[in-house]
Design brief:
2 copies of one chain form a homodimer.
Chain A lengths: L1 E5 L5 E5 L7 H8 L4 E7 H17 L4 E6 L8 H13 L6 E7 L1 H13 L5 E6 L2 H7 L7 E3 L2 E5 L7 E4 L9 H18 L1 H15 L3 H21 L14 H10 L6 H18 L5 H13 L12 H9 L11 E6 L2 E5 L4 H10 L4
Parallel strand pairs in A: 2-9, 3-4, 3-5, 5-6, 6-9
Antiparallel strand pairs in A: 1-2, 7-8, 10-11
Helix pairs in contact in A: 3-4, 5-6, 5-8, 6-7, 6-8, 6-10, 7-8, 9-10, 9-12, 10-11, 10-13, 12-13
The structure holds nicotinamide-adenine-dinucleotide (NAD) (2 copies).
The site of one nicotinamide-adenine-dinucleotide has 30 residues of chain A, from α2, α4, α5, β8 and α6.
Chain lengths: ~350, ~350
């Protein structure tokens, strides 16, 4: 078992343990986050495990209701939030009720957002069930929904009261989803921890087998790094942007592929791109890029684009990035594994060249 | 001119001055809340004054767009918020854009909520144009929208960067709307300021004539009191509940009338009810209730229900009040003008008796 403290305001803890769901009921009773609980989940997770969890909680005597929505990013919108809110009101949820977000990043983002606005804010806890949610989206308090015009355009910063990570549930997750999460784990190594990076290099096989010990280790290290970053910069004013390593181009690749390229795979190639740009900016030697490529490959992640994306669209997207201060993004580069630099002056021609090396046309 | 400091986190100021709209452009330029402004207003205010304001701001060289929605409480819902958000995205609004809420409480609540969730929070300023909004809804950072199941069920606590109160705009407001705001002003006297109460007793005539000096005085005193209360208790944990004086029964009257009774009028009768209950609980003499009734009458506000409401419905509503800790509300009573007490143990029979004295059947 590992406990990570997240020093946001208010602060909270992430508990990481295989099998913790089996004694969750007692813990909720002891901690008393609400006098009633609303378990929010998606249709897949409901079938796979949420009905079982519901039964366990009820058997332990906790007053809990379950509410779900159709699985998938397409549900991550305000209509879903309003529907869930109305069901809660109809069920009599008030300010002392608490929300339990049980599912992947989509569930966490929707349920966290709902908790932040329901009667102007009620308690919520996160039980992330995808690797991506366990190492990324459940930490940091970003909540939100999409608009037809773009992802995550409406949302809040709202911290959960506690995050429970039971990696035993990953056994049910398709391998491709596991890989989406691993891309973020590699990112944490690249931006902040030479040690985590080396650990991944040595243990990639066991990790792909979902062996408990290395899983617990990499999840805990990822949460520790993300928790450190967000506690230094809760509202994304400065430091937090190091989390964008690999994401600046990664998002552009996703967008240019009209979201056919999965996020983690886009980020994997985006990290290779950031490494190559770091090389060209004279920050690192090609050896580091090679280690990154080897590690990604051993984790089943791509290092080149599988789709032929038009480089012009990638560049157009970069110029309209909502996180950009001016009309051109600040790139997060590395000068070593675990050490980042911000670079607002990467020439467009250099980005184009790298994008083409990676498979854009 | 008066300036009131609101010591929330973050803190901000309320500027109160007749005619301040005419030099708003320069002030916005000097303070620079955003690099683009989105003026949000309702259809009435747009026609009456927002187009003029827009022109003034543009002439001063400020980059500003206007967005509006149909006037009225029926627009205060998530569909309006999503529509405004989408228009902002389409117009290229980003994290450095700022929202200007220009209108009554409905506009302030919608625009403030939108500001709090747009890209997880952007700057906004309030320019309230009804007396109710100037003395109540623009201060304190409560934002929100209604659900079909009830009012203000979704929302946030989110402070504006500045509030600009130009009471000259009240000249366009129907007298009935002025009275809705005056009910809240009387409330501030009752809960916190013997002096304000006496001022209202002496100056009710001038106030009804909308004379600038007394208007500025009562708006400033109201803002000062509300600002003091909310800075002590930003998230409505304790003290802030004194603002519910007259509202516990007031809301029940509104609900029992199916919202045919306007809010301020319901609160006026609700305050008389709270005074009568205070009497019956041995806290005050009948003389105080009489002064309250006289003041309300001189301001054109009712002291008895104009509609015959079923007392059973009033009681049912009280038992389901979302602000109640248990199933029965804590009443805010007075032991003198300007001094409140919380009373969780007002007998139901006593409430019934008072409701009947005021016109319930
Ligand atoms: N808030 C943040 O900081 C943050 C950070 C990164 C990503 N995100 C968001 O996270 C979302 C992506 O998260 P995701 O990849 O977890 O998507 P997801 O929630 O849609 O989960 C992916 C799929 O796996 C299923 N699933 C979940 N747990 C399972 C399990 N244990 N076994 C089998 N199937 C399971 C889900 O039903 C879904 O079909 C995006 O919307 C993204 O914007 C948010
Ligand atoms: N956030 C808070 O703390 C808080 C407190 C109290 C009330 N409220 C909310 O405020 C709302 C009621 O506010 P309201 O009474 O201002 O309603 P409103 O915003 O609907 O305004 C009332 C009417 O007056 C019009 N109007 C506005 N300014 C005008 C002017 N200067 N001249 C002529 N017409 C004008 C509007 O177009 C509207 O038709 C409710 O939704 C209530 O929930 C919020």
């Amino acid at each position: 078992m590992k406990i990570i403290k997240v020093r946001t305001k208010p602060a909270y803890e992430i508990e990481i343990r295989g099998g913790l769901l089996t004694d969750l009921a007692q813990d909720l009773k002891d901690r008393g986050y609400g006098d009633r609980y609303f378990l929010i989940t998606d249709s897949n997770v409901r079938q796979l495990m949420a009905e079982d969890l519901l039964e366990m909680l009820r058997e332990a005597g906790l007053p809990v209701e379950i509410l779900s929505f159709p699985a998938g990013e397409a549900s991550k919108n305000m209509a879903t939030v309003v529907e869930l809110a109305r069901k809660m009101v109809q069920a009599g949820a008030d300010r002392r009720s608490a929300i339990v977000a049980f599912g992947g990043g989509v569930t966490g983002d929707i349920a966290g957002f709902l908790a932040s606005i329901y009667m102007r804010g009620i308690a919520y806890i996160q039980i992330p069930t995808t690797l991506l949610a366990q190492v990324d989206s459940s930490v940091g308090g970003k909540t939100g929904v999409d608009l037809p015009e773009g992802k995550n355009l409406l949302g809040t910063f709202y911290q959960p009261r506690r995050v429970y990570i039971d990696y035993a549930v990953l056994g049910l997750l398709p391998l491709r989803e596991i890989r989406q999460g691993l891309a973020e784990v590699v990112k944490y190594g690249m931006i902040k921890s030479q040690r985590l990076f080396k650990y991944l290099e040595r243990h990639s096989g066991e990790i792909m087998q979902l062996e408990p010990e290395p899983l617990e280790h990499i999840i805990a290290e990822s949460c520790r790094i993300k928790a450190w970053v967000v506690s230094k910069d809760e509202k994304e004013a400065g430091l937090r942007r190091i989390l964008n390593f690999g994401h600046t181009l990664g998002h552009a690749f996703e967008a240019a592929s009209a979201w056919r390229l999965p996020h983690g795979e886009a980020v994997a190639v985006g990290m290779v791109a950031a490494a190559k740009i770091s090389e060209k900016r004279g920050l690192i030697s090609p050896e580091i890029t090679h280690r990154l490529e080897n590690l990604l490959t051993s984790l089943g992640l791509p290092v080149r684009l599988a789709l032929e994306l038009p480089v012009s669209e990638v560049l157009t997207y970069l110029r309209s990035d909502k996180k950009a201060r001016s009309q051109w993004p600040v790139f997060v580069l590395v000068r070593d594994i675990g050490e980042t630099v911000f670079d607002p002056e990467v020439p467009e021609a250099m980005v184009k060249e790298v994008a083409e090396e990676l498979g854009c046309r």
